[in-house]
Structure formats: structure tokens, C-alpha cells
Amino acid sequence: MKKDHYSGSLTRERFLFLEIRLVAGLILKGSERIEIANEIYESNLFQFPTERMIRSTVNTCFNRIDALESDELVFQLANASTDVAKQINLYAIMCENSVVRDFMTYVIGEKYRLQEFNFSPKNVNVFFMELAEKVPSVGKWSESTLKKIKQVLVKFLVECQYLDDTRSHRLNNVFIYPELESVIRAKGDADVLPAFNCWG
Q: Which pLDDT belongs to residue 11?
């Protein structure tokens, strides 16, 4: 897990669920990383238009998988049900990027703690105002960068069924899957559990 990695790279990243699932499966087969990247490019497994986009996405998937620090979660990414694997992918993104980790833990987790299920753009705006005060580099991001990252965060919530769609103003009552919870606790990373409406 990267510590204090507040990266604006989210502007060019997506949830990439199908892509990371595919990469995890190839890792489990024992392929070397350069072989995985070449296979995905040569067979156009991502169905992306350019080699640059493909290799950038492969590297993003590798970064998320490395951030998990768990062979068990890599196995689950490749083999578990869609809902379980999507939740693991969200956790991987949280491990890789502190913006997502803080947002999920301190905004979404706090709403679950207080049982306040309302959600609005104001929640996201306040989060970034407070984050900019804490992390100087965030305060230097342009308005266009912030706008894009805010959109990405909301889309992540939709992908994992926290929200029904990008216009929704009510959080759903999500629950953590045991496959993920057990690893988080074993890693000593329980601080993130509120993001999954999990306590204790």
C-alpha cells in the first residue's frame, strides 16, 4: 500500500474492472509482466485503439495489484464473482491512491457511521477543499483536474453499487464481502473498513 500518494492521475484512469481481472488471470498463470503486456497488445485483448493506451492501462493494473500486497486478493480478482471482484478492485485503487482512500474512508465511511445516506456534489467539494488544506500539492491542481477527479470518484461509487447512477443523491446500504474483509484485517488495514460499511 502506498502511503500518502495523492496523485492526480485519476483524471486519465477508469475503474478498469475487466482489464484488471484479465491481468490478474494472466499473473496467476505465471506469465512474466513483459509477456503479459505483449500478449495483451498483440492479441488486442483490451480492444483499445493504440499501443500507448494499452501499455498505460496494463501498468495501471500492475500498480493496483502490487498495492494490494495480497496473493489471495489477486486470485479473487481473477476468479470471484463480479460483485466481489469489483469491491476488491475498489480497495486496490484505495491502496494505490490516497485521494480515493481518504474520500472513501472519511466521506463515505463517515456517512455510514452516522447513518446519513444523503449524497451530493457538496460532499465531494468539501472533501477537496479540506484535502487541499492538508496536502499542498492538491491545492495546486487546476479546476479542470479537480472536476474530472470528482467525476471519476462518483463513477467508482456507481461501479460498486454505492450509488444507483451518477445523478443519485442517496447512498445504498453496501456490505463488505468476507473475501475482502478477512484480508484487510489480516493486513492490519482495518482503518479502511468504514468505507465498506464495516465496523469493529
A: 81
Residues 6+ away with beta carbon under 8 Å from 21: 77, 78, 85, 89
HSE-CB at 133 with a 13 A cutoff on CA atoms is: 5
The widest CA-to-CA distance across the chain, in whole angstroms, is 50
Q: Give the C-alpha distances (Å, rounded to integers) separating 135 from 26, 92, 115, 152.
A: 37, 22, 28, 20
Asked whether the whole model's pTM tops 0.85, one would answer yes
If we measure between CA atoms, which residue out of 77, 8, 93 comes closest to residue 105?
93
Of 146, 55, 141, 153, the C-alpha closest to 97 is 153
The Cβ of residue 182 has, within 10 Å, a number of other Cβ atoms equal to 13
- 121: DSSP letter: H
Q: Show the cell assigned to 197.
A: 460499511
Residues ≥6 apart with Cβ < 8 Å to 29: none
DSSP state of 78: H
The gap from C-alpha 55 to its chain's centroid, in whole angstroms, comes to: 19
